[in-house]
């Protein structure tokens, strides 16, 4: 990939939105997965997001670890907690098992410790 194509690729991922982004760049398969992860979290026009579905959120958490480096995963996890209301979903054992541990997550879990069911605490 030449530098101009890489530049367009990055802008396409930042801007999201297929044809409307104005880059004229079409993403390939790995980039499409990355784009889906970003859209789930940051596309304000989507109504679905991660809210209410622990299996979907656990899959998304696994996907972001596939496509992004650990420092970015931690930022995206925190954004998901803040933007999409994942705090209540941390009460789900399968979701908690998929989260990458970090200081912000520990602080969130400590703030929720009285509300976390016994089954989830054991994970």
In brief:
This protein has 123 residues and is mostly helical. The chain has 7 helices and no strands.
Walkthrough of the structure:
The protein has about 120 residues and is mainly α. The chain has a domain at about 50-120. It contains 7 helices and no strands. The chain has helices spanning about 5-15, 30-40, 55-65, 70-85, 95-100, 105-110, 120. α2 packs across α3 (about 55-65). The longest helix is centred in the middle third of the chain and has 15 residues, at about 70-85. It is elongated and about 50 Å long. The N and C termini lie far apart (about 45 Å).
Oligomer: single chain
Integer average pLDDT: 77
Rg, rounded, reads 16 Å
The poorly predicted ranges are none
Derived from helix and strand composition plus strand pairing, the structural class reads mainly alpha
* Total beta strands: 0
């Amino acid at each position: 990939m030449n530098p101009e194509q890489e530049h367009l690729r990055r802008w396409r991922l930042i801007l999201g939105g297929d044809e409307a982004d104005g880059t004229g760049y079409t993403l390939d398969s790995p980039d499409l997965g990355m784009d889906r992860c970003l859209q789930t979290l940051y596309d304000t026009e989507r109504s679905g997001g991660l809210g209410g579905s622990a299996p979907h959120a656990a899959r998304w958490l696994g996907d972001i670890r596939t496509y992004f480096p650990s420092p970015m995963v931690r930022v995206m996890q925190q954004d998901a907690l803040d933007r999409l209301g994942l705090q209540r979903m941390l009460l789900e054992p399968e979701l908690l098992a998929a989260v990458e541990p970090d200081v912000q997550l520990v602080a969130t879990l400590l703030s929720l410790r009285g509300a976390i069911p016994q089954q989830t605490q054991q994970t």
